[in-house]
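Human:
Class, as today's exercise, you are to examine the entry below, and be ready to discuss the fold:
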Amino acid sequence: MQRLTVSLLSSALARWNAAPLAVLRLWALGAAAISVALLAAVWVVAHVVTPDPTGYLIPGLNEPSTLGSIGRVLFRNSLVLALHSMACVAGFIAGSSLPMQAENHRGWWRTVHEKAGPAAIVFVAAATTFSLCTQGYVLGSGAATLAAQLDVSRTMLMLTLLPHALPELMALFLPLAAWMLASRREAWNELLAATAVTTAIAVPVLILAASLEVFVWPSLLRLASPLG
């Protein structure tokens, strides 16, 4: 089984290497669509929730910007990236690995393997949807609070977020986009390779986005806020 998994991984990587830009373009477009949808949800939530009067501490604005600040942003984002990457791995196991294992069994144990795959895919889809809804609410609540704290409109605040938030979200959603595209074609055997490639691409983008958030975003907030 391990040998077959390695073979599937190598086969997918070799196929993509023949036309890498075509594959990356589809993943990037999918990740961009999810990112824009989430940002729209954040904007809506920011307009309907009540801001927290206690406010926030923002590195570079009302507390020092340090490498530790970048580390905290990266730690938070690494949890989301891990969730989406594990969704890819789970899709591979449920859609490709379990059906292959089912062929080696008979009777009720084969039935378990055959039914476990679709059930796992439904669970992963539900967990991912819950995660996206939670992110939309949490980020929207935070945006409402920060906009009130700085006395700027929600829309203006969202505009200041875009330089770091858009690449950050696209990086986080690359594995999820790969999962969605593969599921449409039922190409579950590609998801292990997709996990490795999308995660490798996402990590440096997240480091860059975290640096922009800590060292550039505060300046944009000062420009946008009448409070300076």
User: Anything to note?
Assistant: Residues 24 and 55 are 39 Å apart (CA to CA).
